[in-house]
Structure formats: structure tokens, C-alpha cells
Specification:
Blueprint: H1 33-57, H2 70-119
Helix pairs in contact: 1-2
């Protein structure tokens, strides 16, 4: 008879539901991978003209750049990204090998100290 029944919102039957305090959560936007591609493509689009203007400003008489086709710009962008990735891949491989060597050395040192500690008890 004297039982109080809670509804799904956490308030008792017959009471108004409790209002939750308003909180603001800032959403951290993830870095877009497409943006980097667009940046590379755009820089390859303007790079010949920038180089031309820089050389002309330094007193040279360069030949005006010719417009590149979409395929040429896309291929140049791909080649530049592939070159950057291959340069970083070598260093990543070297870092991986170094970490494997150091972890193996730590494992061997730990095993040796473990065996010497427990072998002295026999």
C-alpha cells in the first residue's frame, strides 16, 4: 500500500520528472584525411606559377608555365605523396627494428635475472 513506484526517468509516480542540468560538450573534430589530399592537389596546381613568379622577381627571365591537365596534376600529387611516404616508411621501419631489439634485450635481461634469483634457492 505504501509503496512508491519510480518511473523510467528516475522520478516517483505523480511527481514531475527531474530536469537535467544543461551541459555543453565540445566536440573535437577529427583531422580529415581528404583535406591533406586537397591541399597537395591545390599546391601542385599553383606551384608552377609560384615558381615562375619567384624566379621572375629574382631577376630571371623564365618561360611562362603551361597549364597542366587534371591527370598531370593528380599524378604529380600522387608521386609527391608516395615519395614522402617512402621516406618516412624507412625511418618507421628502423624505429620498429630498434624497438624490437630493445624489447628483446629487456626480455633476455629480465629472464636472466629471474633465473639467477630463483636458481639460487635450489
Amino acid at each position: 500500500m505504501g509503496e512508491e513506484i519510480q518511473n523510467s526517468e528516475g522520478s516517483f509516480a505523480g511527481e514531475a520528472p527531474k530536469k537535467r542540468p544543461m551541459t555543453f560538450v565540445h566536440w573535437k573534430r577529427p583531422k580529415s584525411q581528404l583535406y591533406e589530399y586537397n591541399y597537395d592537389y591545390g599546391s601542385n596546381y599553383y606551384r608552377p606559377m609560384i615558381d615562375y613568379l619567384n624566379e621572375r622577381a629574382s631577376g630571371g627571365r623564365p618561360e611562362a608555365p603551361k597549364p597542366m591537365l587534371w591527370e598531370e596534376r593528380a599524378l604529380k600529387s600522387y608521386m609527391d605523396r608516395n615519395h614522402k611516404a617512402s621516406a618516412t616508411k624507412i625511418s618507421r621501419d628502423a624505429m620498429l627494428l630498434q624497438s624490437l631489439r630493445s624489447s628483446t634485450n629487456r626480455y633476455l635481461a629480465h629472464t636472466k635475472s629471474f633465473v639467477t634469483r630463483h636458481a639460487s634457492g635450489f
